[in-house]
């Protein structure tokens, strides 16, 4: 702001005393003080408003940067998901093809499904009979 030294202030007071006189000087000083206070308050409010606007702009900039980073991470995630899903889909289709016997044929030579032999009713299976003879015919 304006620099006023003590000497300049004394000179200003002397000129005001001569021009206004001792009767009007106290009222003029109060009016000058009130006017100076209004100017300072106005200046402070303008400065505070500018600071708030700067803070808002800073927050908006940070939000934009965060959104850009989030979009980049989302794109990277989608790319990684596609890289992983392609081999998984190929594996699923391979497994489906292997599970369908008409399309794939036998998967391994000699691995045909085992068939169960039908036993007549009332006869025990052969394996338990062999166990009985081994234990002494109990």
Poorly predicted tracts of residues: none
Q: State the share of residues found in helices, binned by percent.
A: over 70%
N-end to C-end Cα span: 119 Å
**Rg, nearest Å:** 50 Å
The helix-and-strand class reads mainly alpha
**Counted beta strands:** 0
In one word, what is the shape?
rod-shaped
Can you summarize this structure?
This is Sec-independent protein translocase protein TatB. With 138 residues, the protein is mainly alpha-helical. The protein is 78% helix and 0% strand.
Characterization of this structure:
It is a single-pass membrane protein. The protein has 138 residues and is mainly alpha-helical. The chain has 3 helices and no strands. The model has no long low-confidence stretch (mean pLDDT 80).
List the helices and strands and how they pair.
Layout: H1 6-99, H2 101-104, H3 126-134
Task: Output the keywords.
138 residues; mainly alpha; 78% helix; rod-shaped; transmembrane; TatB; Sec-independent protein translocase protein TatB
